[in-house]
Structure formats: structure tokens, C-alpha cells
Amino acid sequence: MTDWWNSTPLEELTHQQWEALCDGCAKCCLHKLEDDDTGEVFYTKVRCRHLDEDQCRCSDYANRSVMVPSCITLDRENVNSFDWLPGTCAYRLRAANQELPEWHPLVTGDAQSVHKANISIRGRALSDEFVHPDGYEEHIITWVE
After folding, report:
1. Torsion over CA: 77, 2, 90, 18 (sign)
2. Ramachandran region of residue 39, left (φ > 0), alpha (ψ -120 to 50) or beta?
3. Could you say which of 51, 63, 108, 117 would form a disulfide bridge with 103 (CB–CB 3.0 to 4.6 Å)?
């Protein structure tokens, strides 16, 4: 059996395959700050309040854009703008024609491998309901690759 996740171009993936690419790290659910002068993106340890941090999944994935209008949907139409995603993100890696890392759940067959490899945000984030947006700078982190 072929490893479709490394060989199939993003534009040819089925909806199910596209969704399966997500490793469940939830780094995309962290609030980010962008330097207006340089465009550099800084990750904070402040996460969306709708993220189930233990599962590293949105508590209402189907309605995420309704609950949080600024929530960015990752799809084929914006694949060229994935450079804000962490370097470990499968969507970003595949957009750059790189293979998935050895800890990715599709590679290991274990949905918990992202957590075992300490790649996910599980246990390392604060809900945005407890942090004022003006205070995000105090929570900039360096552990997101």
C-alpha cells in the first residue's frame, strides 16, 4: 500500500484525506502576533477558547468559522499562504512537497503519536477567555517550530 499522504498532491486529495493530514497538534489554534514591519509571525501560548486542549481538536469543528469569524479554514484555495503555519504542519510540509515526519499519526498509525512526541500544545496553553488581547505579547513562545 502506498503512503498517499506523501505521494498525492494536495489538490488531488479527497476531503477525507485532506482532513486526515491534520496531525492534531492544535498549533494553528494558538493566537499569533505579526510584526507589522517585518511580517514575522510570533506564536503565543494563548489558544482559542473553543479548543478542547486535551483532545487538541475544536469543540465544534463544523461551526468554527461561525463561533470565531477570524478562524482560518485551511483549504486548497489558500495553500500558498500556509507559511504562517508551524514548520511541523503536514499541510505546510506537503505544500512544499516534503514528507510527513516520523511521528505523524498517518505514519505511525497512532493518533497519540503527536502528543507522545511532544509536538502538540496539550497541557501547554491558556484559553483566550483568561487573557486580554492586549496581553498576548506577554505569552509569546519559542517552542513552536
Report:
1. positive
2. left
3. 117
In a domain, 145, yes or no: no
* 18 pLDDT above the threshold of 80: yes
State the Cα–Cα distance between residues 80 and 91, nearest whole angstrom: 10
Show the domain range for 9: 4-139
144: in domain:
no
CB atoms inside a 10 Å sphere around CB 102: 9
Mean pLDDT of 104-121: 96
* More confident site: 49 or 76: 49
Task: Determine, yes or no, domain membership for 113.
Answer: yes
On whether residue 115 sits in a domain, the answer given is: yes
Measuring CA to CA, which residue among 20, 18, 29, 37 is closest to residue 75? 18
When divided into structural domains, the chain yields a total of: 1
